[in-house]
């Protein structure tokens, strides 16, 4: 157990500075990229709108649940189904926060490959949607639903911060973005990230390095099985990063890890009923087919390029070269932990309207 806790601490310290950087950057993007501008860019139904949908969605800090309300809002404001699907696929597969984390755990090549493949995956899914809709009437939009998690709270997603009043000044917008990053976004991903780190530490401790390499000989079959296994489960892009590092450590190929990071975050069983209701069965089929085919195909391409370049990352989570001083990593870790604890304490107080009843004899919140 000593080795397990040692790996757990080292992985956490390794991730914390990059995670904090990614969260803050994501918050600034959220504050300074208005949805109205995104809506205007996603009009039309051709390949231009599809490409813009994938490009716009890639850096946004939204998971596969919290992206649903935003995508449906874009759809009701004039975005086409193909552009909406491209946005739906590329957005949860990557983001500024997960890209920063990829750099710390998987190296520069995977850091570049991940957003590029997410964009290509979104474009492909949008293209399949375009093909399925040729000659078919567009489904009529239904009345708007509340802007909350499509999972009903079961995935760790909190209601979007965009429902709050828009701040006016430069500093107010910036402060709102940082608040979104360290409250809404961090609360969304923290439980799943902790689970991913624990799994990574367990694999690093108890599965010998390269032990699963024998199961990757039949690359096509192994790639398909990895994608099929990852599609039903919920994992956000950030939490999938340490798990992908553990996969490579245990002997799986970079392409399999990349396929997992594409298919896992982009598919989640909880919001599929909402997608079917809002976009139709044909679009949902194109969405799932686009994610599956692109994850398998891009994973295979990545493995072929890795062989051609004679590149095979030797990922050892918690044992990588230190990019930043230990004290700075420790400060970032404590800051993230303190912020999450503060958020949970404030949330618990907000859910307890009678907390001062015994002390003052007055039920708080009642007139």
Topology diagram in text:
Blueprint: H1 2-32, H2 35-41, H3 47-57, H4 67-76, H5 81-93, H6 96-106, H7 108-133, H8 170-206, H9 219-230, H10 237-249, H11 254-266, H12 272-279, H13 281-308, H14 326-350, H15 357-360
Helix pairs in contact: 1-6, 1-8, 1-14, 3-5, 3-7, 4-5, 5-7, 5-11, 6-7, 6-10, 7-11, 7-13, 8-10, 8-14, 9-11, 9-13, 10-11, 11-13, 12-13
Explain what you see.
There is one protein chain. This protein has helices spanning 2-32, 35-41, 47-57, 67-76, 81-93, 96-106, 108-133, 170-206, 219-230, 237-249, 254-266, 272-279, 281-308, 326-350, 357-360. It has one domain. Helix 7 crosses helix 11 (254-266). The chain is built from 15 helices and no strands. It has 367 residues and is mostly helical. The chain is globular and about 60 Å long.
Q: Would you tell me the structural class of the helices and strands?
A: mainly alpha
Beta fraction: under 5%
Q: What's the number of domains?
A: 1
Radius of gyration, in Å, reads: 21 Å
How many DSSP helices?
A: 15
- Give the helix proportion (percent range): 55-70%
Number of strands: 0
For the termini, the CA-CA separation is 54 Å
Global mean pLDDT: 78
